[in-house]
Amino acid sequence: MADEPLVLGIETSCDETGVGIVRGHTLLADAVASSVDEHARFGGVVPEVASRAHLEAMVPTIQRALKDAGIAASDLDGIAVTAGPGLAGALLVGVSAAKAYAYALGKPLYGVNHLASHICVDQLEHGALPEPTMALLVSGGHSSLLLAPDITADVRPLGSTIDDAAGEAFDKVARVLNLGFPGGPVIDRYAREGDPDAIRFPRGLTGSRDPIYDFSFSGLKTAVARWIEAKRAAGEEVPVADVAASFQEAVVDVLTRKAVRACKDNGVDHLMIGGGVAANSRLRAMAQRRCEDAGITLRVPRPKLCTDNGAMVAALGAEMVARNRPASSWDLSADSSLPVTEPHVPGTDHDHGDGHDHGHGHSHGHAHDHDHFHELSKDNLYS
Ligand code: KG4
Ligand code: ZN
Q: Residue 43: what pLDDT?
């Protein structure tokens, strides 16, 4: 236990300032400050508002996480941070903070991929990920089926959405129903009171000639909007719970069907589901049933670990340390469109040029030379 890597992770890709601390696969702290209320009246995340909120929340959230974990920053083996994908300005706040802490403390820095973090977080719940891991990743910005032989180095997309992400569809349908933002949790709640078979909404890309592992939710979203418009035009009341349940059923049906198919086709006997939409109660229930029927073991983290948080970043960082992956260089920058195939951003000068072994178990001396400091402070911290 005590020799497992102790890592702090920082997440600022969207509207959650997350700071998590893990030791190997053990969660020690999961502090999250959300600016969601500040965006609600705009019906979506406003990037500048999010960046400012991250800046204000960063230091207090780091302090809260350290206190919750009962450790000192000097105890850490490394600092991990979401380098992308996400909102550029928001990511920059996290990357700058991580660099500053790592540099000041003399710890290795690990720039990691937000999407791989959504998968790796399950190690905190269910232990080491099987290899390869089959993952259904469903968030506000992404919907993909991924096969990951090694979550720190090798993530292969099998298919993804060709238009809207699953979470985006939830958010847009909620807006049409005037249910506020974000839409996922509120649709999930309304759907519990509704009939999932009340309206038969289309299941995108499920025809025999359609790509097997790709998704499409834009047509569904439009169909729901048209259905609601027609009701309103006819002066009839919109049955919100039935619409929510029927829409949700269409999304969840397609997601689980394709995910189980991907497992079967690839001979994988388990399925991991990650990302904010994995918090959806109907998705969890249907995936459980369909996986059981197919002899597949389902792994879904508890809802709080599905939506954005810092613990997931720390979990992937700890795996990087455990596998002796190279630390990121000080010129690490935020990459708003970092591809899912890059779980890790080592940077251009892998070994920091300072002769340090940045793998787990290195001594924590503060021996970066002056040139590095100059380089960091002058050009890179704010680039
Ligand atoms: O992973 P996440 O927290 O942020 C991104 O990386 O995008 O995912 C946010 C998305 C939002 O679209 C939100 O509506 C959706 O996850 N979401 C849900 C639920 N909770 C959050 N969707 C369906 N059901 C939920 N219970
Ligand atoms: Zn996310």
A: 84
